[in-house]
Every structure is written in structure tokens, then in C-alpha cells.
Amino acid sequence: MTSKSFERNEILFLFDVDGTLTFPRSTVQPEFEEFFYTKVKPRVTVGIVGGSDLEKMFEQLNGKRILQEFDFIFPENGLVQIEAGKEVGKQNIIQHLGEQTLQRFINYVLRYLSELELPIKRGTFIEFRNGMMNICPIGRQCSREERNMFATYDAEHKIREKMITELKEVFADVDLTYSIGGQISFDVFPHGWDKTYCLRYVEAHYKFKEIHFFGDKTDPGGNDYEIYTDPRVISHKVNTPNDTKRILREILNL
Description:
Layout: E1 11-15, H1 30-40, E2 45-49, H2 54-60, H3 65-69, E3 72-74, E4 80-83, E5 86-90, H4 93-97, H5 99-114, E6 126-128, E7 133-135, H6 144-157, H7 159-170, E8 177-181, E9 185-189, H8 197-205, E10 210-215, H9 225-228, E11 234-237, H10 241-252
Parallel strand pairs: 1-2, 1-10, 2-3, 10-11
Antiparallel strand pairs: 3-4, 4-5, 6-7, 7-9, 8-9
Helix pairs in contact: 1-10
């Protein structure tokens, strides 16, 4: 728990986005945004760390306002580092894995997905980002109703889990980690390039007395698991923005 004796620059609160500050793939609610910026931000240093890229963060958190409102923004698990609205660092999966390995992996994924029978399929099955690949069996160009339908179907049939199990076996020789986040996809990235990566930047430049993390995908295989269980942070599991708000009120005595 934080102490009233701490100054704002001594405490860092890091937040997942999807399911933590917003409902899944929804935009932030105005009342939550108002609470966050007027009650929480004046008390502690605030940052977001998400698996998605910066554009998707803009979509969910009311546009480029976040560049001014958040002290730190860590898209793509922190492989992109933004401080005070300016990009200050970036990692690259192409340079790390090499083109030959990357193509071997992508070709296998596309073959696997071409043979996968699902109730529906749409478009954009692999989304390439700076520090990771996002693989979506249904295709990211699905409607909200189709997204919800696949989430229910996946909960029963374990489509993503089964695919990850096979990829781990086939590519056991490659430096890759697999992480399920959100309703329809999973991320693939080099070992150690999970959300704990953002802590490398934070620790290299700052000496916070406490770092808190708030996230919903905290079980093994979820994209919050590694940072949630990291001994360097005080972690808080949430299921919705309502949980986040309740815990923030408790911690900060709001």
C-alpha cells in the first residue's frame, strides 16, 4: 500500500489497458477517465503497458490525449518506450530473429490457420508489430458480435491454447514466448520481451520506492502474468475497470 508521506514522483502505477482501464476492446468510459485524471494522476506517477500498438491505445483511451496525460506509455509490452509524450526507445523482432527464421514461422502459422475449421473467419490473421507478432485465428477484421462469439467458442474448444501448444513443439529451437491476451488473439515474442520489459527502462532511469501493476490476464499464459508475478512490483488483479477504480480508491484513500 502507498503511504501519504510519499511524493508523486516516488510511486509508479502501471496499468494494463484492455480489461483494466477499459472493458475488452471498448473505449474508456468518461466517468472513469475523469476519476483517473483528476484523482489518481495528481497522487502518483502513471503509466500504461499494453500488448497492442500505440494506435490501438489511442483508439481505446480517447486519442492522443494520453501522450500528455500519462508519464509513461509502453506499447507492445514495453518494446516501444514513450516518456512525456516522446518516443525514447524501440526494439525490433526482425533484427532479433532474422528474416529466415521469421519467414519459417509465418509460413507455418499461415498453413495452420488455412486448415483450421472455425464457425467464421474474417481477415488479418497475423499482425506484425515492432516487438512481436499478433496471431488471430478468426481474423482481426471481425465485428464486436463476431469477436464475442469467438471468445465463447475459444473458451470451449481452446483454439488458441492448442495452436500455441503445437507452435511450442515445432519451434522449440526458436527464442519465442506465447501469451494469450484479449478475446481473439495471442502474442508471440522473444523470451523476456513480455510486459516486464518495460521495467528495464523504468529501473534504468528512475528509483521509484514502489511500483504497482494493475492487470486482468494474470494467470499463466496470460499477457499480464510475468509482470504480475514479478517481485519488483506490487500487483493487483482486476477483472473490469470497476475493480481498478475500487482498488485505486482503497490504496489512495480516495
